[in-house]
Write a structure and sequence with these properties.
Number of helices: 3
Pfam families: GntR
InterPro entries: Bact_HTH_transcr_reg, Tscrpt_reg_HTH_GntR, WH-like_DNA-bd_sf, WH_DNA-bd_sf
Protein name: GntR family transcriptional regulator
Mean pLDDT: 91
Helix content: 40-55%
Organism: Micromonospora harpali
Largest sheet: 2 strands, antiparallel
Keywords: DNA-binding, Transcription, Transcription regulation
CATH topology: Arc Repressor Mutant, subunit A
Length: 78
Amino acid sequence: MPYAQPLWRQIRDDLRAKIKAGIYPPGSKLPSARLLAEEYDTSHMTIRRALDSMIERDELVGRTGIGVFVADDSGQNP
């Protein structure tokens, strides 16, 4: 039986795909955790885990009281 990834990892991978596809370009603000939880039909904590894992890898930037943004990759090599 194949191993199913935890939901937070599936959400993280989906967000990465949306960033790569340009749906969320560098510098753009992501929807709130509440809206993402509604979109993915899951809990706020599951969304936070996905977002936090991306923040830890500098893929996203969290700004307290403002929101979560896609990291600006302008300084990185293609």
